[in-house]
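Action item from last meeting closed. Structure (221 res):
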């Protein structure tokens, strides 16, 4: 899929549907800047965004991927491609990362409230290992300080994850990056594998790390 052709088709179809970039972005849980980048051919939507994008524009997934106007009935249907097959395999296993991020944020808030309410005062935040296998506390912090700090860190990391996902884990730093992205078949097995790895990297590192630390503080104190 060529990014320039896709961008022109997306802009044309969006306008035909009477949607602004902001309207479309709101339906997809992305920013209007992300939609603008797609329409300018700077990048392509994330693989998890394709199906919601097709629904928002009133297209089938195949029509969207082939930049095909469904009203052009005189055109013969395109032969199924590897992209169609891979997308079909992906659809039953679609993961709503937007909802998962919301759940992780709620979990972090609940743990922070629990820690402040049920563990007031000074908490041990660091332990020093002794030679006999025991541990000795050598770092302390007020619960009213540590839990809000952890919650703020969770908000920051989840937002960072969201921003990277909106751009398909791609940042436009120059023409070299744009050329590389446009040359990639973003539904190829290799690209999908990288996307899978990055999804779970952000899930564990940006999503679960802070709640894990909050649970550890509550249990150890």
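Sequence:
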């Amino acid at each position: 899929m060529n990014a320039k052709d896709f961008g022109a088709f997306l802009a044309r179809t969006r306008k035909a549907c009477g949607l602004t970039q902001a309207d479309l972005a709101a339906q997809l849980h992305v920013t209007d800047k992300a939609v603008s980048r797609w329409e300018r051919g700077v990048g392509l939507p994330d693989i998890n965004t394709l199906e919601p994008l097709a629904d928002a524009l009133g297209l089938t997934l195949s029509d969207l991927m082939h930049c095909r106007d469904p009203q052009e009935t005189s055109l013969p249907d395109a032969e199924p491609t590897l992209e169609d097959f891979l997308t079909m395999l992906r659809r039953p296993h679609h993961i709503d990362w937007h909802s998962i991020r919301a759940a992780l944020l709620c979990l972090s808030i609940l743990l922070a409230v629990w820690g402040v309410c049920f563990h007031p005062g000074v908490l041990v935040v660091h332990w020093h290992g002794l030679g006999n296998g025991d541990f000795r506390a050598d770092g302390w912090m007020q619960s009213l300080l540590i839990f809000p700090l952890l919650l703020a860190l969770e908000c920051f990391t989840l937002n960072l994850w969201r921003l990277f996902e909106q751009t398909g884990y791609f940042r436009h730093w120059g023409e070299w990056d744009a050329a590389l992205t446009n040359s990639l078949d973003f539904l190829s097995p290799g690209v999908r594998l990288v996307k899978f790895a990055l999804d779970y990297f952000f899930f564990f590192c940006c999503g679960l790390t802070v709640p894990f630390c909050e649970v550890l503080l509550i249990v150890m104190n």
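Note appended to the action item: The chain has two domains: 3-93, 97-220.
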